[in-house]
Amino acid sequence: MAQTDNLTEGTDLKQFIVLAKSSKGKACVAVIEKALAHPTVYVFSELLDMPNVQQLQQSEFKSYYDLLQIFTYGSYQNYKSNKDNLPSLSPLMITKLRQLTIVQLSSTLKVIPYSLLLEQLEIQNVRELEDLIIDSIYQNIIKGKLDQKNKHLEIHFAIGRDVPVESLDGMLATLEGWLQTSDKLLKEVHHLIGYTDKVHDQNRKSKEEFDKRVENAKQHVKPDQEMGNFLGMGIGGFDSMEYATEDHRNRKTKGKGKDMFKRP
């Protein structure tokens, strides 16, 4: 399995850079062809910038420079739209350019529909597409998940690609926007933390005040309860003064009844 670092750091490209230093014309073309066909070379900007490669633009081998530029920055559709002016691709080169196209799409889409992949890669059936994706995952070119039910590819990771100079301003603008958004979110987080601390402090003080009031209430309620016990249970064993009075009245009535039947 190819290691991601080898694919993105250009480790395996160095041998072709060394060869390009001393190769001109047709020999330089052979170096380009070998680099494009190499199974673990997926970044090409250093090779493209070599003086002998740059000189191909003013030679009969300009098409090979253009082809290398497509592999460096472009996509499979870029090749197809200029196919008549470019060298033919070997099966291995076609596979690599299709894989680089998936990487390019993943820079803007984290969920890529099968329909878009089939169109951009010009693959005729889903089985062939899924085989290409599985091989790309196995080579660590991308990491993701095939969703066969919903017919899309979920991207979790993709290797980095070379960036053309004209795209740097756009990338810097995007990063600047991201930085401003991050600063705004950070300020909002700090504000929420301050608000949370304030609310927590208010709740703590309210609880302390409530606990004090409860304790004061307990101190005032206790003597009243003792007086109630005295009034309720201390008079003849009755629960209240009302029941004690009622009992006294009943006793008095019974006493009068007895006097009515008393013999003289």
UniProtKB/TrEMBL annotation:
<protein>
    <submittedName>
        <fullName>Proteasome component region PCI domain-containing protein</fullName>
    </submittedName>
</protein>
<dbReference type="InterPro" id="IPR045237">
    <property type="entry name" value="COPS7/eIF3m"/>
</dbReference>
<dbReference type="Pfam" id="PF01399">
    <property type="entry name" value="PCI"/>
</dbReference>
<dbReference type="InterPro" id="IPR000717">
    <property type="entry name" value="PCI_dom"/>
</dbReference>
<keyword id="KW-0647">Proteasome</keyword>
<feature type="domain" description="PCI">
    <location>
        <begin position="1"/>
        <end position="160"/>
    </location>
</feature>
<keyword id="KW-0736">Signalosome</keyword>
<dbReference type="GO" id="GO:0000502">
    <property type="term" value="C:proteasome complex"/>
</dbReference>
<feature type="region of interest" description="Disordered">
    <location>
        <begin position="244"/>
        <end position="264"/>
    </location>
</feature>
<dbReference type="GO" id="GO:0008180">
    <property type="term" value="C:COP9 signalosome"/>
</dbReference>
<dbReference type="Pfam" id="PF22061">
    <property type="entry name" value="CSN7_HB_subdom"/>
</dbReference>
<comment type="similarity">
    <text>Belongs to the CSN7/EIF3M family. CSN7 subfamily.</text>
</comment>
